[in-house]
Design a protein that fits this description.
27% strand; Arc Repressor Mutant, subunit A; DNA-binding; 5 helices; 139 residues; homodimer; 6 strands; 3-stranded mixed sheet
Chain lengths: 139, 139
DNA sequence: CTGTGTGCAAACACTTTGCAGGTGT
DNA sequence: ACACCTGCAAAGTGTTTGCACACAG
């Protein structure tokens, strides 16, 4: 069976280069969101910083990845299981663990509707829950 | 009557310098949150970049200001009406207008409790609502 | 007077961009 | 063959730090 990363690139009409496949694979094997720095460390000496920036931007534009701020408001990226082909469903929460600093999608939780004051038009909601994940909580 | 900025500095046991007072006043007369860049522009030629960074950091530590990410996940700062003396009540939403890019506290809205999966310990919730404010919505 | 804050400049970190050569289709 | 991607280096932008002097208490 073909590699899932390659399928994704195909689906989104992006050229299939070694670097893109490797980067996508990194996301696919991690449940947690990754920052540019995470990737830079993982691919140190093998993929150039600039290339990582360009890939991330392109994946964002294409809609393969989405952005999540971590507890320092640093940008992390994640493939979103619920999103397909530009149809994003991002009204779910993200959990940021203050112990291991991992950021994960909590697909189960849908952000409750927010009763905004009159006159406001809401287009997107971002909910970040901070605390400790089961692993760090028991440690 | 004494200046509110001066009262604040006093309350938090911070030295009352010209620069701090000016920066605090900027926050007090703006309903919207301010970024470092906003302040740098406002005080161009009068307060040094580095000083602004140091003041913001100190105000954060002291608990006078809190941080909110805007739509680019850039940090903005705001005095929080509901917070007093280190007792923060940040479980309210922030609204980020995609038209004028202003970020404001919506004190009226309390973030609903989130039913997290078992094992997670929640310590803070950040809710950012994006859309258009009444002013930009009608324009 | 003492300790802290400020401005300036340099250092540092993060991100973007131009260009020449390499790669996917 | 062509268009696009990559690596490298340089430029751009945002943030921090060291130091000498100024200021608040």
């Amino acid at each position: 069976m073909e590699n899932q990363a390659e399928i994704l690139l195909n689906d989104f009409n992006l050229r299939q280069t070694n670097q893109r496949v490797k980067i996508l694979q990194a996301f696919l094997r991690n449940s947690a969101a990754l920052s540019h720095t995470d990737l830079e460390e993982e691919f140190a000496g093998s993929i150039d910083r600039a290339t990582i920036y360009r890939c991330l931007k392109q994946f964002l534009d294409a809609g393969i990845l989405h952005r999540i701020p971590d507890e320092q408001f640093q940008t992390k990226y994640a493939v979103c299981a619920a999103c397909d082909h530009g149809h994003h469903h991002h009204d779910h929460a993200h959990f940021n663990c203050l112990g291991c600093n991992e950021t994960t999608c909590i697909e189960q939780i849908v952000i409750p509707s927010i009763p905004m004051p009159a006159g406001f038009k809401v287009s997107e909601k971002i909910l970040i829950v901070q605390g400790y994940c089961p692993r760090c909580n028991n440690a």
